[in-house]
Here is the input.
Amino acid sequence: MVIDVDTGTAEGNGPPHQQRPVKGRGGRPVLWVTVGTLVVLLAGLAMPLVLTNRYYMSLMVGAAILSLHALAVGFLARHLGLISLGHTAFFGGAAYCVGIAMTHWGWSPLGAAVFGLVVATVAAIPMGALIMRSSGMVFLMLTLALGQALYTISIQPVSRDITGAHDGLQLQAAQDAMFLGIEFGGLLRPDVFWPLAWVALVVTVYLLWLLARSRFGVLLEGIRENEERMRFSGIQTFWPRLLAFTISGAVAAVGGVLFALNGQYVSPELLSFLEAGDALVSAIIGGLGVLLGPILGAFIYTFGHSFLNFGGNLQLFMGALLVIVLVFFPGGLGGLIRSQVAKRRKNKKSSQEDSA
Here is the structure.
């Protein structure tokens, strides 16, 4: 089974993705995207000045962190047609590494953040080596099994002194602890933490966009479309798949580190199936075939949880939203936007040719 990232449905080998513009691999379009990214980055930094409500600002921070987890899931789906339910291992694992390094070892917040990112990224290599020869439903279940294995380990009585088991782990730091010039206690404030989350999200998206336009991105697309033909061409497909899995693990780890620093508390729920489901549902709602789709889905999912959480029917409303997207917008909302933009460009081009 391979996920068709244009429609978000599970199919066999689909037709080549001929509608993706390749001009982004040139020099000038990359320059324009770089300039646009800088503009978006600077504009987003002003969000705390515009959105002064602390509750809504906290939702923005939560959505940005969830976006990184959803981006990691969407990256594998978009480039390899693989769906993962085990990236909680990197998201939650990185968060736990930050908590353990700070609380038990007395590390600084910055040192603990680097430690969590490195450990979770490196851990993706052996995990990927075990499962990246599989695909489809087998890959999905293997990633789920690995994530649930870490969840089970974290709640064992023998792990209580390290992870806190079901009680979780409260991050502790010295009174004068700083993180990139910000007091550690101040990271709890969403208006203070937002610039860190926003910069991390925008930079990650930009790097993933560059990667998609590189030769490595083209290679991944070839593997996704017809891995057997790539092998017959003499290309080793295992190592590119493993590298892609490691990159996606690193993206999820960034989100986990940010979650730990912002909440200053980590719990086994970060490794649970529910956290994996949040990321996957966000990616599906936004669109697996669009780079910005998981981000759009994460913001909709986060604010939807807030606005629809009344009467005890939250799961009913969120389930209905997911069904509507899957039935009427199989490519996700991001895919719908992309198709409408492409349709308008086509109509405009046709009208110009007719007038000429």
Remarks:
- Confidence is low (pLDDT under 50) at residues 5-26.
